[in-house]
From TrEMBL:
Coiled coil: none annotated. It comes from Dokdonella immobilis. Gene3D superfamilies: 1.10.720.60, HAD superfamily/HAD-like. Its cofactor is Mg(2+). Monomer. The gene is mtnC. This is Enolase-phosphatase E1. It comes from the Bacteria.
Length: 231
């Protein structure tokens, strides 16, 4: 009988391929970002995140073009900036609406998420992608609409993914003891932070090379291999 009462999952590299994020989502946002900023900068929410990006970069008074260049540079270096992620999410909304792409989710992930949810296990997402972007992604996957399986979503407004305090906040928000929550990720540093906060952890190693030696966390190659009763 498993003691796990909730599961929190990462997206990129865990439920979904790294290639979907790097080769589909990021180029889509990169190409459309300049026009998006120019045509939406009067919108309060867009203005807020442009201001936050400038503040994060220490720019006191930046032109629209300087902020666009800054954001493009951050996309190219995969900076996990909350401001960038919020703006990217707004651009991806058009892509999902216009069916320019659908989100990649591994079949094993979709299958297990649906099974765990049907068994009454609350499921959550914790990703660097903004909460609106997470909701869009899971509503438009190649495996169908997965929105109904999730009880909640967390992004970097809760804190950085490599800081243990973020996982303590998530446990408080979920309202369960940390050791009843399982966190799934492809990044060992995120799992280390989650474990420091008391969560249970499983490394999802999808590279095809199998589980790395000395990862320091229980490890699986896909969601089908996760045995909740053995954790
Ligand atoms: C809504 S997912 C968009 C992917 C993204 O922008 C990202 O940075 C993924 O990071 P993760 O924390 O899911 O590895
Ligand atoms: Mg990841």
């Amino acid at each position: 009988m498993s003691t796990i009462r909730a599961i929190v999952t990462d997206i990129e590299g865990t439920t979904s391929s790294i290639s979907f994020v790097k080769d589909v989502l990021f180029p889509y946002a990169r190409e459309r970002l300049p026009a998006f900023v120019v045509t939406h900068s009067d919108k309060p929410e867009v203005q807020h995140w442009l201001h936050e990006a400038a503040r994060e970069a220490g720019l006191v008074s930046a032109s629209e073009q300087e902020i666009i260049d800054l954001l493009i540079g951050w996309i190219d270096t995969d900076r996990k900036s909350t401001a960038l992620k919020a703006l990217q999410g707004m651009i991806w909304q058009d892509g999902y609406r216009d069916s320019d792409f659908r989100a990649h989710v591994y079949a094993d992930a979709a299958r297990c998420l649906r099974r765990w949810s049907a068994a009454g296990l609350p499921l959550y997402v914790y990703s660097s992608g903004s909460v609106p972007a997470q909701k869009l992604l899971f509503a438009h996957t190649e495996q169908g609409d997965l929105s109904s399986v999730f009880s909640g979503y967390f992004d970097t407004e809760t804190g950085a993914k490599r800081e243990s305090a973020s996982y303590s906040r998530i446990a408080r928000a979920i309202d369960l003891p940390a050791d009843r929550i399982l966190f799934l990720s492809d990044i060992v540093e995120e799992l280390d932070a989650a474990r420091t906060a008391g969560l249970r952890t499983v490394l999802v190693a999808r590279s095809g090379d199998g589980c790395p030696a000395g990862a320091g966390h229980p490890c699986v190659i896909d969601f089908d291999a996760i045995d909740l009763d053995s954790l």
